[in-house]
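Appendix B. One record, verbatim.
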Amino acid sequence: METRWKTISIIALVIALGLVLVPKVVPVCSAMVATASGGQMPMRCFYTFRAQSLFAVTSVLAAVSLFVVRSPDGRKTVGAMLAVLGIMMAVLPLSGVMGICMRSDMPCHTTAFWNTVLAAAQILTGLVIVFSKVPAQAQSSVIKEMPRPTGEKIKWLD
């Protein structure tokens, strides 16, 4: 069972590291948008993938914690957190949330594609962790009966 958890933890860590590296390997748009006052500012895809990078770093920390957390409930909680972070990263490029450039030939569309693929893989990995079956011995080791004190008689209510 421990080998299975280590394998799932390694997969979650690799996916999270991939999400961190996507904007670095497949860069977003570098063009600037002219404002009404004559200044320039980055396109909105720049800010979208800035936010995605923060969620990805949080995913890396959560995936690393899978190696440290030993309780089944703790692992399921981290798995749920990975799934939620994956959902958040998958919806960031949507126009209703933060969005990316309108033109489909811009490089941010390629970045968004790989971001969505890895976010879907992270959602799936998180759900596998949440819904994986915990062996009976791991469940029973959490709750133990208190030993009876010696020499005391138990009074029953009648």
